[in-house]
Specification:
This is Aldo/keto reductase. The chain is of the alpha/beta class and 340 residues long. It is built from 13 helices and ten strands.
Length: 340
């Protein structure tokens, strides 16, 4: 079974591997890489059987909230459901933006978004509400006062931040403390062997403030799944085939070297390539949970193997070294005197 981990210093516990719903359903902005409802049903059932009790979605993921609400209904008291607010559900049309009250982190937008998610999820509470991205047009104290009200009403249990600058994370935590509001308990960040930017500011901030780290895109948009080969175009239908600009970003000498080492370690353990990349993250002290996205049962089985895989200290150090990013100021300067 998959162990549970505490989110920082809070009472929130998540399964070490969470199931992400970004590609659940054919509607919405990710419909081109989406999964049919019948496949989603099997994937969710398999995840529950494997011990995953934490599920991540967002109001902008098309049909995802409705599908998860229906599939998790009878398990509601045994699972953690997380969703997000910030972006408009309806895309801008005819050159006009949607009404301001439908997106952003203003008091009205947050409350309206939460009410909509509760209806779609067919539940009376959201276990973790993620602020999907910072909003520089709204004072964070206003946002926190809205989430405080929702928490007091029992509609939200915990608050998390995603896609925030490091200084905005600090501001949110300290403003909450100053005004005696419910503070964020976790950060959701992209982090993988081919994308370690979050280690400069956000991972240290999480450790400093006692926040849990929930990781999205842990396989670098699927680059670390093992299905891509150097010098070959991504297979038709794959995520990086749909997003060629993303593939171009990962198609570097450094990243192919990283993948080569991951493949070698996977072969040594007779484990899936993706499981090694995920196990590297699960070995990080600040990580509470890693969100995996699966479009097939086979993909989910490969990813679940990470929960059973234990990398040696030498293997972790090997992966740390081959994927070591080029640090910029001030990280590079500080790193000469203090270990990250």
């Amino acid at each position: 079974m998959i162990p549970r981990r505490a989110a920082g210093r809070s009472g929130l516990q998540l399964s070490a591997v969470s199931l992400g719903g970004m590609t659940f359903g054919r509607g919405g902005p990710f419909g081109s890489i989406g999964t049919d409802a019948s496949d989603v049903t099997r994937i969710v059932a398999l995840a529950l059987d494997a011990g995953i009790d934490s599920f991540d979605t967002a109001n902008v993921y098309g049909e995802s909230e409705e599908l998860l609400g229906r599939l998790l209904g009878r398990h509601r008291d045994d699972v953690v459901i997380a969703t997000k607010v910030r972006f408009p559900i309806a895309s801008a049309a005819a050159g006009r933006m949607p009404p301001a009250s439908t997106y952003g982190l203003s008091r009205s937008a947050v409350i309206r978004a939460v009410e909509g998610s509760l209806r779609r999820l067919d539940t009376d509470r959201i276990d973790v509400l993620w602020l999907h991205m910072q909003d520089r047009t709204v004072p964070i104290q206003e946002t926190l006062s809205a989430t405080e009200a929702l928490i007091q009403q029992g509609k939200v249990r915990y608050l998390g931040l995603s896609n925030f600058m490091g200084y905005r994370v600090s501001e949110a935590v300290l403003r909450a403390e100053l005004h005696r509001l419910e503070a964020p308990v976790a950060l959701q960040i992209p982090w993988s062997l081919v994308d370690r930017d979050a280690e400069q500011e956000l991972v240290p901030a999480a450790g400093h403030f006692g926040l849990g780290v929930v990781v999205y895109s842990p396989l670098g948009r699927g680059f670390l799944s093992g299905k891509y080969e150097r010098g070959h175009e991504p297979a038709a239908g794959s995520r990086l085939a749909q997003w060629p600009d993303e593939f171009g970003r990962y198609d570097t000498d450094r990243n192919w070297s990283v993948l080569a080492d991951v493949r070698q370690i996977a072969a040594d353990h007779a484990a899936p390539v993706s499981a090694v990349a995920l196990a590297w993250l699960l070995a990080k002290r600040t990580v509470t949970s890693v969100i995996i996205g699966a479009r097939t049962e086979a993909q989910l089985q490969d990813n679940l193997a990470a929960a059973r895989l234990r990398l040696t200290r030498d293997e972790i150090e090997r992966l740390d070294k081959v994927s070591e990013p080029v640090r910029s100021y001030p990280s590079a300067f500080i790193g000469r005197f203090e270990q990250w």
